[in-house]
Specification:
Length: 751
């Protein structure tokens, strides 16, 4: 029977490989999660004899925070690509200056601008190298699939072996796991090492004899690989220590296990320790996380349970399938089905483990439950719960430091999770029909097979180009000319903008352009909504064709259409006003703008009415007070001008403390303030009562000679503690913590 099961396991791994190759093809170069940063780091190591870069938050390189990762995966990948000519690297990695990474959208989701004919996908050294490293990831990821089978079989010797095959299939056919397995990502090496060690630990625990020395030495090597691949191996070391203690108790062999435990740990540290010492020497931190987070970006405020709960949807979706740079999702119903299947499997697992409250000894015999250690303590089963819990707690800690609510980061414990899921469906199949156990694997396989063709590949499809003959000359609204190449021009043939918009909503602008001539530059498009004081209240900047159209590759006489979302923030204007809608084209590299015949650099489309809606009322500070309205004395200011901001507050609940209200005018690019007011409202906020309306007037003086340009008005509440800390009230939207502790209102212009 075992031979047949191994054949089925080999078949599952083969299907996994084939699907991973399809995912490799479906995702354009550099579009998989963080691949834009991982590959430059690999290239740097290949070009510099495997030396590591020194990270500096003040001078961020093209590998960004990935240069702070444990480097073994990148080193191995660098050796793979070292013989390959990467002279086309800069041309292939053309960054999209308007990429909307981390946002599910149908426009500008691509991290790089790809050739219209997609000629770079399988030609050129960079394409070959990148896809080769993706294949390296797939090989590592396949180890986890195999390890899951053996983990299930060794942990549950009493259940049929097909349950192990089901667990392996749940890993292999998880669409998100396939996506990660076909991506350049160091998670794959760490996951392979950890999953294999977990299998070896369970195997040693199930034996009646002492653990073989060669296996313990192998564990040391694998732990070293894991520690030099991903910091998530750190928490796993605690589980390894627990197994070591349990084995010492089981065999009453403390000297033996301590001796070889020290050797095993020594091997792991010999392999990985140098990197941690290097971090301490360079950054004063063994893990280097301080620099990593400084580069990746810290959360602006401390993570709360409420905010964490509000991020659950993105976490769940990125566990089942959220592709690209977290920009391409599947149909909503697929997540619902996956979640329902997960709940069913959890229910089955609970029934399985509660049945009789019996645990298995190393010999596989059933004995009554006992809290004593030794023979009656079944650590392998406990580990299936303990390791995912430890990994989840570690992930929460990481998420509290930076924006990292991604379910894929839990894949470090995917073998254990899949084993529990398979056992849950096995238990349900015992009580119904055995065929039911195959349902989750079949659904996952069908979804995984469909994803590259239905969701991933279409999301990056080149735009549809339209012959100019479909637009008459009379439809031309404006003709833009390249100021450096006057013979090159583009015409705007249509624009659709709502006649009335409201604050707090998202509007969509639709445009159509035609290239009159071939173009030398890759132009970007801007749409500005400008108030009567010529201040841009909101805008959209985007690469044409939904991000997929490099205009330098367009032939004359072809047209394209664009639609793009523009967010109209809740507080951008204190009152109803008229906005001018302006459209233009510019080169994002040097901000050169195309010009019209009259010398201007934008086309006036129309005026649109901006209505101050009730969206502002959905924001509160700490769920206790909200801003009803506000006024500002002037939005055009200069050196040493007096500015007055009047805030109208509505009290929702007693505040109980005397908070200070702050109003700041600052540069959004540098956060430097040019004017500020910090004052406690008259009577103190501790005396505010629910239902009250409070008028709060702030006067401030603009600094001397601030740089001309646009600035934003920022407001919030804080309490100054005895220790000198500033405890700010959190900004809440519709009952959900936003993760911020201030609100941005309108923009002002310094002249």
């Amino acid at each position: 029977m075992a031979k047949n099961e191994y054949k089925v396991l080999a078949g599952i791994i083969l299907i996994f490989f084939m699907l991973a190759l399809v995912y490799n093809w479906a995702s354009p170069l550099f579009e998989n999660s963080d691949e834009l940063f991982h590959f430059p780091l690999i290239k740097y190591m290949a070009d510099n004899d495997l030396s590591l870069p020194v990270q500096d938050p003040a001078n961020i390189q093209e590998w960004h925070q990935e240069g702070s990762q444990p480097p073994l995966y990148h080193m191995a990948a660098a050796l793979l690509i070292k013989p390959i000519d990467l002279s086309d690297y800069a041309e292939t990695r053309r960054l999209n200056p308007h990429a909307r990474i981390g946002i599910v959208s149908d426009s500008n989701i691509n991290a790089v601008i790809h050739p219209l004919d997609r000629s770079e996908e399988f030609r050129g050294g960079t394409a070959i190298a990148l896809r080769l490293v993706r294949l390296f990831s797939t090989v590592l990821a396949a180890v986890v699939v195999a390890a899951t089978y053996f983990l299930t079989v060794y942990t549950f010797p009493d259940v049929p072996r097909w349950v192990g095959l089901l667990a392996a299939a749940l890993v292999a056919f998880n669409p998100m796991y396939l996506f990660v397995a076909s991506s350049i990502n160091n998670d794959n090496m760490a996951n392979a090492a950890i999953s294999t060690v977990l299998v070896l630990l369970v195997w040693m625990y199930r034996r009646d004899s002492l653990p073989p020395v060669r296996v313990m030495l192998l564990i040391g090597v694998l732990l070293g690989i894991g520690m030099l691949s991903k910091l998530s191996t750190g928490p796993f070391m605690l589980l390894v220590g627990l197994f070591w203690l349990a084995l010492a108790l089981k065999h009453r062999a403390f000297p033996y296990m301590v001796k070889w435990g020290v050797v095993t740990l020594g091997i792991a540290l010999l392999i990985s320790g140098w990197w941690y010492l290097r971090n301490y020497d360079l950054y004063g931190d063994l893990t280097g996380l301080n620099v990593f987070v400084d580069i990746a970006g810290r959360r602006p405020t401390a993570l709360t349970a409420e905010q964490l709960w509000s991020e659950r949807e993105s976490f769940i979706r990125s566990f089942w399938g959220l592709y690209g740079g977290l920009t391409v999702d599947m149909a909503a119903w697929t997540y619902t089905v996956f979640n329902v299947l997960a709940v069913i499997s959890i229910t089955g697992a609970v029934v399985f483990f509660s049945r009789g409250l019996k645990l298995f000894t190393g010999s596989g015999k059933t004995k009554p439950f006992s809290f004593h250690t030794g023979l009656f303590f079944d650590l392998p089963r406990i580990a299936l719960f303990l390791w995912p819990l430890m990994a989840f707690i570690s992930l929460i800690r990481w998420t509290s430091m930076t924006w990292a609510s991604q379910g894929r980061l839990w894949f470090v414990s995917l073998s254990a999770l899949a084993t529990l899921g398979a056992v849950g469906f096995y238990e349900l199949s015992r009580r119904t029909r055995q065929e039911i156990a195959a349902v989750p694997a079949i659904f996952a396989l069908v979804t995984a097979a469909a994803a590259p063709f239905v969701w991933i590949r279409p999301a990056y499809a080149p735009p549809k180009l339209i012959p100019a003959a479909e637009f008459s000359e009379d439809e031309t609204l404006a003709e833009y000319t390249d100021p450096d190449f006057p013979d090159e021009s583009v015409r705007l043939v249509s624009v659709t903008v709502p006649d009335e918009i409201r604050t707090g909503q998202e509007i969509h602008v639709e445009l159509a352009f035609c290239a009159n001539t071939p173009l030398s530059r890759n132009w970007s498009i801007f749409v500005h909504l400008v108030n009567p004081f010529q201040i841009i209240l909101t805008q959209a900047d985007f690469t044409p064709g939904g991000g997929a159209l490099p205009t330098s590759e367009m032939a004359a006489g072809l047209c394209w259409t664009d639609h793009y979302p523009i967010e109209v923030k809740a507080g951008i204007a204190p009152e109803d006003t008229i906005l001018d809608v302006l459209v233009g084209l510019y080169d994002a590299r040097d901000n050169t703008r195309m010009v019209l015949a009259d010398g201007t650099d934008h086309y006036f489309v129309q005026q649109t009415q901006l209505k101050v809606g009730d969206a502002l009322q959905q924001f509160t500070f700490g769920d206790v007070v909200r801003l009803k309205s506000y006024e500002i004395s002037s939005v055009v200011i200069g050196s040493k001008d007096e500015v007055t901001v009047t805030l109208e507050w509505e009290v929702l609940k007693p505040l109980n403390k005397d908070y200070t209200v702050f109003v700041q005018i600052l540069d959004p690019r540098t956060t430097s303030r040019i004017a500020a007011s910090d004052q406690q409202p008259a009577g103190g906020t501790s005396n505010w009562q629910p239902g009250q309306s409070i008028t709060d007037i702030h006067s401030m003086t603009v600094a001397e000679n601030p740089p001309p340009g646009g600035y934003v008005v920022l407001i919030g509440f804080y309490e100054l503690t005895e220790g000198g800390a500033f405890n700010r009230l959190r900004l809440v939207y519709d009952g959900v913590d936003t993760g911020y502790d201030s609100m941005t209102l309108t923009q002002v212009r310094v002249e």
